[in-house]
C-alpha cells in the first residue's frame, strides 16, 4: 500500500525551489573532527551561506550520512543546526547512518522522513539505497516498486528521484567500489518512465552534473558536495580536495526542466588533513 505523501501548496504554474545538503558526518561531540575538519562548524558555515544567499526555497533535502558516529546526539545536533533556517527538511539515510536511530531522533516540527513529497507539478521520491553493514549501495526491489506505484499514483507530475549512493561511476577508483552496485540497471529501469526528469544524490563528496539519454529524453544526473570534507575528483586512490564545503540549489520548472547550481562556503576556512590515510 502506498503511504501518504507530504504535500506543499504550490501552484502548478510555479517552480519548486529546493536546497540540498548532504554528508555532514556529525558527531555527538561538537568539537570532533573528521580528517582535520570540524564537521559541526563546516555544516554551520554552509547553513550561514545558505541564509546569506536568501534563496526562497520551499524545503530542504538532507541526503544521508547525517551522522559519523551513529550517536543519538549527532541527529539532535543536525536538527538544532538547521532549525534557524525555518525550512521543512526531508531526509533519507546514508551508509554512515543507523536508519532506526535516525528515524527516532531526527524529530521536530519541520523534520520529515516520508518517502514522497508532492509540490507544484512535481513529485520528489526519497529512496533508501543503503545496505546494512556495507559502505556501498543497492536499489532494492521494494524501492523500485515504490517508484512504480508513486508514479502510477501521480502520473501527471514530473518526478525527481533522490538517494544517497551514486548510480553512475564517479571516476575515482577507490570511491567507485562503494557506488550503487546495480546503478546501470536502476537508471535503465527508471528511464522507462517519462515522468522521471532527474536523479539526485550525495555520498561522493564532490560535484557532478551530467545527463542520461533515455527513451523519453534527457534525465539530469546530479551529485552534490559534502558540507564537510571533499574527495578529490578522478583520483585512483583516496585523496582529499581543498575545495570548501558546499550545497546545491535546485529550481524544478513547470516544464520538467531543472535549473541547478552548487555553491560553496567562501574563503579557505576549512583545510582537511591531506595526509590522512583513509576515510
TrEMBL record:
Function field: Hydrolyzes cAMP to 5'-AMP. Plays an important regulatory role in modulating the intracellular concentration of cAMP, thereby influencing cAMP-dependent processes.
Which PANTHER family does the annotation name?
CYCLIC NUCLEOTIDE PHOSPHODIESTERASE CBUA0032-RELATED (PTHR42988:SF2), PHOSPHOHYDROLASE (PTHR42988)
Molecular function (Gene Ontology), one example? 3',5'-cyclic-AMP phosphodiesterase activity
Listed A to Z, the keywords are:
cAMP, Hydrolase, Iron, Metal-binding, Nucleotide-binding
Q: Which residues bind Fe cation 2?
A: 65, 95, 164, 203
Q: Which InterPro entries match?
A: Calcineurin-like_PHP (IPR004843), cAMP_phosphodiest_CpdA (IPR046379), CNP_phosphodiesterase-III (IPR050884), GpdQ/CpdA-like (IPR026575), Metallo-depent_PP-like (IPR029052)
**Pfam families reported in the protein's UniProt record:** Metallophos
Cited SUPFAM superfamilies: Metallo-dependent phosphatases
Enzyme nomenclature, EC number: 3.1.4.53
Look up the domain of life of the source.
Bacteria
Native source species: Shewanella fidelis
Free-text remark on how the cofactor is bound: Binds 2 Fe(2+) ions per subunit.
Tell me where in this chain the Calcineurin-like phosphoesterase domain is found: 17-206
UniProt lists the family membership as follows: Belongs to the cyclic nucleotide phosphodiesterase class-III family.
Cofactor(s) the protein needs: Fe(2+)
UniProt binding sites for Fe cation 1: 23, 25, 65, 205
Q: Which reaction does it catalyse?
A: 3',5'-cyclic AMP + H2O = AMP + H(+)
Residues binding AMP are 25, 65, 95-96, 205
Task: Supply the name of the protein.
Answer: 3',5'-cyclic adenosine monophosphate phosphodiesterase CpdA
Amino acid at each position: 500500500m502506498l503511504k501518504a505523501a507530504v504535500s506543499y501548496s504550490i501552484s502548478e504554474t510555479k517552480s519548486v525551489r529546493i536546497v540540498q545538503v548532504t554528508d555532514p558526518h556529525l558527531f555527538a561531540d561538537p568539537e570532533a573532527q573528521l580528517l582535520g575538519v570540524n564537521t559541526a562548524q563546516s555544516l554551520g558555515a554552509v547553513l550561514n551561506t545558505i541564509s546569506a544567499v536568501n534563496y526562497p526555497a520551499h524545503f530542504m533535502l538532507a541526503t544521508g550520512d547525517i551522522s559519523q558516529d551513529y550517536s543519538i546526539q549527532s541527529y539532535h545536533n543536525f536538527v538544532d543546526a538547521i532549525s534557524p533556517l525555518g525550512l521543512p527538511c526531508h531526509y533519507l539515510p546514508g551508509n554512515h547512518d543507523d536508519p532506526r536511530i535516525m528515524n527516532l531522533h531526527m524529530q521536530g516540527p519541520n523534520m520529515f522522513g516520508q518517502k514522497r513529497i508532492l509540490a507544484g507539478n512535481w513529485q520528489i521520491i526519497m529512496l533508501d539505497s543503503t545496505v546494512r553493514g556495507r559502505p556501498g549501495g543497492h536499489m532494492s526491489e521494494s524501492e523500485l516498486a515504490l517508484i512504480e506505484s508513486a508514479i502510477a499514483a501521480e502520473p501527471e507530475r514530473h518526478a525527481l528521484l533522490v538517494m544517497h549512493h551514486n548510480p553512475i561511476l564517479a571516476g575515482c577508483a577507490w570511491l567507485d567500489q562503494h557506488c550503487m552496485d546495480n546503478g546501470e540497471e536502476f537508471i535503465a529501469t527508471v528511464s522507462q518512465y517519462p515522468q522521471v526528469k532527474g536523479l539526485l544524490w550525495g555520498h561522493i563528496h564532490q560535484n557532478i552534473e551530467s545527463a542520461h539519454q533515455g527513451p523519453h529524453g534527457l534525465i539530469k544526473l546530479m551529485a552534490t558536495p559534502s558540507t564537510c570534507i571533499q574527495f578529490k575528483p578522478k583520483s585512483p586512490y583516496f585523496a582529499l580536495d581543498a575545495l570548501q564545503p558546499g550545497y546545491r540549489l535546485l529550481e524544478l520548472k513547470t516544464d520538467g526542466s531543472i535549473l541547478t547550481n552548487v555553491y560553496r562556503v567562501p574563503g579557505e576556512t576549512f583545510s582537511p588533513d591531506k595526509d590522512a590515510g583513509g576515510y
